[in-house]
Structure formats: C-alpha cells, structure tokens
Amino acid sequence: MTSTSSWSQLAWNEADHIYRAILELPFVRQLADGTLSREIFDRYIGQDSLYIASYCRVLSHIASRLPHADMTEAFLGFALDGVTVEKALHSLYISKRPADMSPACLLYTSTLLAQATAPVEVEAAAVLPCFWVYLKVGKHIAATMKPGNPYADWIATYSDPAFDASNDRAIAICDRLANSASPEVRQAMTRIFVLCTRMEWLFWHGAYENLSWPKAVI
Question: How far apart are CA 171 and CA 211, in angstroms?
C-alpha cells in the first residue's frame, strides 16, 4: 500500500464492479423512479429490519475490540444510530416484522457474525459495505429520483449528510486499522469487503425476486 493509495480505495476498486451491478438491479432502478411495487419494498424492508437488529450487535462487538477509545466511541455511536434508524424509518413502512430471515438475510448476517473470531480489522472491514454502498446508492437515487417518489423517506435517510459523515468516519477507522495491519490481514480485509459488497447485491436481488425458503423446508 502506497502513501497515495489507501486501503479503502484499493478495496473499493476491487468491489466497484459489484456496485455498478447494484445500480442496474431492477429493485434499485424502480426504487429510484418510484415504480417499485409496495409488495416488493415491504418484503425488503421487513428483512432489512431483521438485518439491522443483527448488524447493530456486530457493531457493538467491534466497538468492544477496537484498540483506541475514539474508535470504540465511534462504533458504539454507529450501533446506536442503527437502532434509532430502525425505529424511525421502519416504523413508517413496517406493520409487522417477519418472523424469519430470508436466505439472503441469513447468509449476510451469518457472514458478519462469523467474523467475530477474525482479527478486529477484518470484522470492521466486513461492516463497511453497509455504510458505503448504501450511501452511494442513496445519493445516486436522490440525484435521479422523480418528485413524489413514495419511498422518499428511505432515500433521504441514506443520502443524508449525517450518514455521509458516519460513512467517512467508518472508512477512516478502517484505513487506520489497515495501516497498522500485516499484509495478510489487509488482504483478508479486502476479501471480506468484496464478499460483503456481493451480499448487498444479493439482499436487494433476493427481495425483488422473492428468493425465499422452499415450502418443503419451512
């Protein structure tokens, strides 16, 4: 890693093709133009509620492992912000939380939870796509959406300057961790970052296509 190439930029470059694919998902395109069916959005937001509940616990676990007080404070703040967003945003759309995780949601949350015994640098890199991809998608949609979009509240949440600031802070922490890590750990950070960016693609794709458990195994 050179002085002009941060770990985060190198990691994003590795995952950029996945982000471009996310922008082409029917879910994202229809969310932007306001034509996404409420059935599909409800299916997504219900699973997102389950995801965020697990994600916040992962953020808190990372906070407990970080080597510096300012990093710990930041990740505890991220966890609290996640709880607040879940209560505020999901209350606008969710009448009843689903009982079970979809295969995509379970795979994503299980992947995050599996990093609990990995180096903390890797665990922190695993949660970064949820910040970064959502911010970039939120900004992209906000810049292209039509007036009267029924999902404007969701879009505003993930294109808000406060979320932008949190994303910058999370990136900066991961870069600090990467700067002190071995080459092997930095490589592991990049691998999990790319994998979890794929999970972001799968989450939206799964909601749109209704990729659920076969009835035979429910």
Answer: 31
